[in-house]
Write a structure and sequence with these properties.
Rossmann fold, 2 domains, 565 residues, alpha/beta
Length: 565
Amino acid sequence: MRLLQFIEKESSKPYKQILLIVIIAGIANSLLLGIVNHATQAVADNENLTQYFWLYMVALALFLYAQWFAFERAIITIEGAIYNVRIRLTRKIRQVELPFMEEQGSNSLYARFTQSDMLISQAIPQITGAAQMSVLLIFSFLYLAYISYLSFLISMAGMLVSAALFLTKTRRIKALLQEVKQKEVNYFKSISHLINGFKEVKINRKKGQAILQNIATESAEIEKIKLEVGKQESRLWGHGRVLVYTLLPVLIFVIPSISDIHTDNIYKISSTILFLTGPIAILINTMPVLNRVNLSIDELVSLEAEMDQVISKAFSGHNGDDKEEESSNLIFSDFKEISMKNVSFTYTSDFGNSSDADADSDSGKGNSSDFSAGPFNETIYKGELLFIIGGNGSGKSTYLKLLTGLYYPDNSPENSNLFVDSIAIDKTSYPAYRDLFSAIFTDFHLFDKFYGIENIDSGKVNCWLEKMKMQGKVEYKNGGFTRTSLSTGQRKRLAFIAAILEDKPILVMDEFAADQDPQFRQYFYETLLPEIKAMGKTVVAVTHDDHYFHVADRILKMEEGRMVK
């Protein structure tokens, strides 16, 4: 069973103890049936019912305690397993590389992370109850065999036929659920277009209508499949009812005519079959949930396998955590220069949905032809203010990702062409190399707190808020900014403050001033950048603002993925 394999792998808690308690609860529940049947017979025979009363109370107490214990331990065990998976997968997110994240897309990754473990967590009480009902079913059939062996054989034959039909329909349902999952990926993608592209949709009615039509079409397809799933599941429920109510007339009307069965036993047989109606219904109703849980577990396993493959390929046999540990002893902050020698990067046709705007806009990335940036043979010197210019699609953002270590060059890491002074950077030293940089990319993310920055001086934060003309709009409190729902330009200013507080040797900015007003833009180039340089920082900035090119120490120009003179 997929769920048990998942628990055995992920949880430190012994699930066999839970199974034992579930079995005890099922036995106690079936004992209640037997005690009631025999007590009823005792009433007819005018016997003393005291022993049956106490037996019933003991069995009931055992059943209630075992059921409570099983539910509690099952929840603790599964939540522990989910916790382990979450921690491990989030650690592996840090170990994968940017191309993997760009190919997957944030919406897809978020859905795969959250929906799967949430469904598993919510389904556990129902599945635990169904496991208990399974045990109850087994022991109730054993009790039926004790009453009438012929009735037991006929009931088992009916169960086997129903189980065969049940498994056939379950496979069909599982295939349909898998199809729904694929359809929902496209549905969520369309929803993300509607939300993330709200401004564009708002001012373009035709675009909005087309997206809504696309969503309606995908929703209709999903609805059609889910209706079929519902029909199949309702038929499963019907099969369970048909089994019970077919067995009843056979055992009550047919069996007594061909076999010598005492009248009291007929009553016990009928009450046992009717008693099983509830457990059978619970089991059948749980199977759709179990199908979804199995799919969720498969999704988590598939996601981890994809990340493991990327990590293994990227690190060439090095464990990601080991790689960071090895590089933690390397310190490059006292560098004098960073140089590239024939460094290049190629976007292959199957690269995916990269968000690199430069390469994507007019380079042909994502089409049948590949786009290559480089080879680069540039050197960046400590303390300089460097501007990188070029048209859209020229490869500027790709160059920044190579420079900051977010992309690995095409050449083998064992023969690295990226150097800090005379030290060659390979994949084991990339984490330490990346520590040189603070960056504000065009698709920057503004965090709610200053993660990774210790002993923050609130006075320094307030000073920079004033320098960035954000005083009165935002305050520093509880380790972060009190407000981030601002314009893009203002959010960039807050990201700039966060980057400064990180106190890294190199500050990289991609079109920082593009979203600033003219007054602040002039202030940024003529006052802030010289001040950052005076702090001993190296500044690498992508810009189109030719009015301020005179501020830079050097300017590098890119065309069609290459540096030009």
